[in-house]
User: Fold these one by one.
Assistant:
Number 1:
Amino acid sequence: MDITWMDFVLLTLACFRLTRLLVDDTITDWLRAPFHHYIEETDQEGNVETYIEVKGKGFQAFVGELLSCHWCTGIWASGILLAGWVFIPYFDWVILMLGIAGASAILRVFLDK
């Protein structure tokens, strides 16, 4: 398997976006709901902090920990993307879509300042 620098950059951006989608985005709350319990606390200044508490034991706790950790989810996301790229026809379109969305998210951070 030959990977060009462009492939590497695209896969990196796609992995970044897929990881954020699984760990942070509101659209995937339904996916995390069976594994997370959210606790909100208000400090003395009125600021609300939200904490994640992982539910259950065994497999449920494992998935809950996985879905609350960018580092952990990133490893699995990169594996999924690489496997899809190698073994699934036209999966490169999914990687391209996620890569473009990842680049867009990064640009947004810099342009919104």
Note: The CA atoms of residues 30 and 36 lie 10 Å apart.
Number 2:
Amino acid sequence: MFSLKSIKTKLEKERKAIEAEIKSLNTPPEFGNDMDDSEKTDETEAYSANLGLQQVLRSRLENVNEALQKIEQNKYGICEQCGKKISWLLLRILPSSHLCQKCKKSLKK
């Protein structure tokens, strides 16, 4: 049986994993005196890529936190666009979803 409690647990685990990943990417490059320019360039490029990934992760984290807040407010599982219930199947796959399947499809058009 799939329940709101299991969704909340899944969201909390996802939040911890995202926070840990953001933290691991948050280390700026350290340029030592023994590094040549190409190594410094590589380090800088890797750090820039990490910044982009951090932004994506922060957005996911925001969605997860919003879903957890909705659970606490008894507003979870309601489509933000049409106000109808989001199917349990969709919430099981993507527990941080804030749109029903029909509204998601209409955004893609």
Note: Helices lie at 4-25, 37-72, 88-93, 101-108.
Number 3:
Amino acid sequence: MGLAQQIGAYYPTVMQTISLKLPDDLLAQLDSEAKARRVTKSWLVRDSLEKALRKPSRNGAASCYDLARDLAGTVKGLPKDLAGNPKYMEGFGR
């Protein structure tokens, strides 16, 4: 069996190796968490990176509308022109 086949037995794709420097306290946390979850430190680092990198950056942060989109139009009895009529903004912020 070739090396690629051996690696494929463990991972769906070929993995590259990197190294990184961690302060002692973070390394101890990583070791403790990996043992608690019964996973390797490498797996925990990959999982944490994937989760962190999936989050939108501050530049691409979700807008207020994005966060409340499912609520839009759910309040009954409001004027139909609430968003576009400036008269509803008179005195706002005072």
Note: The helical segments are 3-8, 24-37, 41-54, 64-68.
Number 4:
Amino acid sequence: MAVQLTRYRFTADEYEAMGRAGILGEDDRVELIEGEIVEMAPIGPGHARSVNDFTERFVVHFRDVAIVSPQNSIRLGRYSEPQPDLVLLRRRADRYGNALPSAEDVLLVVEVSDTTVAADRGVKVPLYGRAGIPETWVADLPHDVLHVYREPVDDGYRVVQTLRRGDRVAPLAFPDRELEVAELLG
């Protein structure tokens, strides 16, 4: 006979309280996904370089129109507080010093996937779509492509495009500011 256990789902408020209480430390590589505290993969050199490349290019191209937020948490409803690799945020006077950004503040999420392609595409992308984030990019380093997700729906995104070196891409929020995919992939 199979035994079914009831799981407790942590809220984002409880998760943040664990951080303030020292239960979760600043150096703990965890995030809250659908009420569960999950470990994040270690950051290897390829991943770090790619996040740096994205950050540099985003600062150059978007600093006058958006806040470029690398590896910081966003609050997606009551039970999720993921930590994407890079986010373009709407400008706000407090620069998000009083509260974490929510889905309404996010213009674009970028996940850099070195060892986490399946989890990013199968768990995080649908989470971002359900939250209503207008656009998500996944830099798929093992396959040397950029997956672009647009038009959020309940189970992810309606439009998925796979871009390669030689292609160009611009965020929906800034269609006149194209970037070369090759520059983003390094």
Note: Strands lie at 30-33, 36-39, 67-70, 86-89, 106-113, 135-140, 145-153, 156-163, 168-169, 179-180.
